[in-house]
Design a protein that fits this description.
Radius of gyration: 13 Å
Structural class: alpha+beta
Largest sheet: 7 strands, antiparallel
Number of helices: 3
Strand content: 25-35%
Helix content: 10-25%
Oligomer: single chain
Length: 107
């Protein structure tokens, strides 16, 4: 079951939660930057999980649009809401990963 969504969190219809990267998040997860949006939860079997997104990833881009913070992620995902699939660039440790999220059909 998905955890409750906090005020500084965003729940995507692709099956993940992301949160604003605060100093506390940087410290706890040993992140190198506050830029991006921190993936705090990925639902098992969701389009995001199937694509390879993992809890702890930092979303840096959506379809090439840079994600500076949670507000930018919300706006970028709203911009691809009608697409069957969309590309995320996520940082995992020191690696950047391209993650193609395919929405479930027949919603």
């Amino acid at each position: 079951e998905a955890p409750r969504v906090e005020a500084d969190e965003f729940e995507s219809d692709a099956g993940f939660h992301a949160q604003q990267i605060t100093e506390t998040v940087v410290r706890i997860h040993r992140l190198a930057t506050r830029r991006g949006a921190f993936v705090s939860f990925v639902a098992s079997g969701s389009p995001a999980a199937e694509a390879g997104l993992e809890t702890g990833d930092v979303i840096r881009r959506v379809e090439g649009q840079e994600i500076a913070d949670l507000g930018a992620l919300r706006a970028a995902l709203a911009g691809v809401a009608d697409r069957e699939r969309f590309l995320l660039t996520a940082e995992r440790g020191e690696e950047l990963r391209l993650i193609l999220v395919r929405r479930q059909t027949g919603r």
